[in-house]
Amino acid sequence: MTETEVTKPQAGPGRMDPAESQRINTLATALSVSVASILVAAKLWGWWASGSIALLASFFDSLLDLAASITAFLAVRYAARPADNEHRFGHGKAEAFSSLLQAVLVAASAIFLFVEGTRRLIDPQPVEAGGWALGVMALSLVLTLFLVRMQTLVIRRTGSIAVTGDRAHYTADILSNLAVMGGIALAVFAGFDWADPVLALFVGFLLAKSAYELGRDSVNQLLDRELPDATRAHIEALLTDDPRVLGIHELRTRAAGPLIHIQVHMDLEPYQSLKDAHDVVVDAENRVLKHYPAADLLIHSDPYGYGEAHGRGFFDADPEPHDGGTRRTDTDTPDDGKSA
Predict the structure, then answer these.
(1) Handedness of CA 129, 177, 181, 117 (dihedral sign)
(2) What digits encode the pLDDT tens for the residues 274-333?
(3) DSSP string covering 257-276, please?
């Protein structure tokens, strides 16, 4: 298998130098904090002027967005810090913690909407100053569309889970803003007072779904789930793109914010010198680092045909002993990188 035979992942952890990743992610999260601050102020005023429960719900949503964006801003800066004596594997999982906190905040916002929307559905209240309320939501929609577009561009380059988490609830905000505008318009212009709380409940459902997906992805990274199949296949192709490499096995991967960690056993000619074996391993490391500069690699050399199991009983999903006689690449275990 060669690198050209495998689809190269377009984005994801490990693909960019940590310092450059930090710079881009910091700019994205700083923009997120700025937009959230503007929306919090605008929606608070719009709710005060109109009394719309849907607009109040949107205000609380933006307030949580602001808290989550600040958390993401701090997390991406901390995650890119180099390893130290207390954190030998770096600080990358700070992004996953940030994303998990965002999931909790989004879930809290959804619960508030369910409770308040149900209460106002039982006892509908008229919406005042509907024109101002619609103006506030139109501003919110434009700013959120701009922010999500910028975040999408950043994620394509860095694959940051913190920025992904930030984008998740802002993407839900786009639909929720449209729903709130529809509810206010129906209440003001058609006299359907029930539309305002009904649309608030719909927003709550969207937020609950977003919180679940975001929490799932965060937990997957915190629990060291394997990288997606496409990324693993690309790494395998890079490692074996050398006739001196007779096979690989026990490939293990995990993500930690902008970083990835790779461990693998490599089958080599058993009677070559230690220096020659070392050169093969270094060349393999350089091939991987060319595409994944934020990767931490640990390659164990096995003499071809004499490889022994190392910790297989606990660590490997495949309990069968490695016979050292085949070019194994560990592609037989399905993994979409999404489900828990």
Answers:
(1) negative
(2) 999 999 999 999 999 988 888 889 999 999 887 565 555 555 555 444 444 334 444 444
(3) TTEEEEEEEEEE-TTS-HHH
Which of 196, 277, 287, 202 is CA-nearest to residue 236? 287
> 26: closest CA among 166, 127, 123?
166
Both tokens of 55, joined, read 């607009």
* Top-ranked range on mean pLDDT: pick from 103-107, 160-164, 240-244, 314-318: 240-244
Do the Cβ atoms of 64 and 207 come closer than 8 Å? Answer: no
> Which residue type, as a one-letter code, is found at position 121?
L
Residue 50 has which token pair? 């109109």
> How far is it between the farthest Cα atoms of the chain?
86
- The two three-digit tokens of residue 250, written as one number: 């026990």
Tens digit of pLDDT for each residue in 189-198? 666 767 767 7
* Separation between Cα atoms, residue 172 and residue 208, nearest integer Å: 10
| pTM given for the model | 0.59
CA distances from 178 to 140, 172, 183 (A): 10, 10, 9
**What are the tokens at 152?**
């999408």
| Gap between the Cα atoms of 47 and 55, Å rounded | 6
